[in-house]
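Friendly challenge for the regulars: who can give me the C-alpha cells for this chain first? No prize, just bragging rights.
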Amino acid sequence: MPGLTLGDTIPDLEVDTTHGRLRFYDYIGDGWLILFSHPVCTTELGKIAEYADKFAGRGVKLLRLSCDDLHSHREWIKDIEAYNVQILIVDLIQPNLAPRCSTLDGLPVLFFIMGMQQLQMSIHLTQRKHVIEIAREVHAKGFLRTWKDCGSSCCIGSKYNVRIGCGGFAASKNGYKVEFPIVADPKRELIQQLNMVDPNEKDAQGNQVPSRALHIVGPDKKIKLSFLYPASVGRNMDEVVRVLDALHKSAKHKVATPANWKPGDPVMISPSVSNEAAKQMFPQGYKSTHLASNKDYLRFTHV
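First reply, four minutes later:
Bragging rights claimed.
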C-alpha cells in the first residue's frame, strides 16, 4: 500500500482541525506525536481522551484524522464526552431483591455500572459494615479521590461526585474531555497519503474508510512505530503507552526491549556496543546470558 511507513518522514501538511488550521511541524514542535485514525469508534476516542494526561506526561501530543467534516466532528465530540461519564452505584440490599446482586464475605452488594469502563472493586469485608466504612475502602482503592461523610447530602470531590445515603452510596465520574485536535479529511486524500486506509471496508456510499492506524512520530518527524489494525479490531491504549516507554528508552540509551517488556523490567544492551563500551555506558552493570553459541550478545541491564 502506498503511503508512510516505518522510518519515513511525515510531510509538513497544513490541515483543518477542530482547533483551527494547523501545520504538522508547528504542532509537533520538538516533541513526539501520536497520529491516529479510525472509522467512527466512540469507545476508542473516549479511551484516548482518558489517557491524554499519560501521553502529555511523556511529551507526546495527539492528532486524530477523520473523513468527516468539522461540523460532524464537533457534534461527535459531544457523544464521546457523554459516553465517558462513569457512574457507580453501590446499594446495600437483600440478595433476593435483584438478580445482579453479588456477595462480599456475606454482605450483599448491588452494582450498577454505566459508562465507558466498568469500575472494578475488590473489598475485603470481615464483618457487616456500615456503608460509610465501605465508602472509605472504595476511597482507598482509588475510586474516590476525595470524599466526606455527609449523610444523605451530596459531596463533591475532585474526581467523583459522591452521594452517601442510609442505604448505600453512588459515585459518578465526570467524562474525560476531548482536548486534542481532530483533522477533517472529507475528500479522503490524507488517509491515502498517510497510509491509513482499510482496503476491505467501505462506507454506505462505497467510499474508502480509514483503518485503525496509529503512527508514533519522533522529534525528528520520522515514523518510529506504526500500528495498522482493520476497522473491526479495537486497539489497546495500555500497549500504546508501553511502546512509547520502550521507544523513549531506546532513543535515550543504546538498548532494546525484550519480549513482553514493561516499564521497570531490564532491557538489552545493543549488540553493536562492545563489552568495554558497555562498562562505560552502563556503570550500574549488566548481566550476560549464557547461550549455546557462547556468543556474548544477550546482556541485560536497568536504565
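The helical segments are 24-28, 42-50, 52-57, 70-83, 131-140, 190-193, 237-252, 275-281. The first helix runs from residue 24 to 28. Your move, everyone else.
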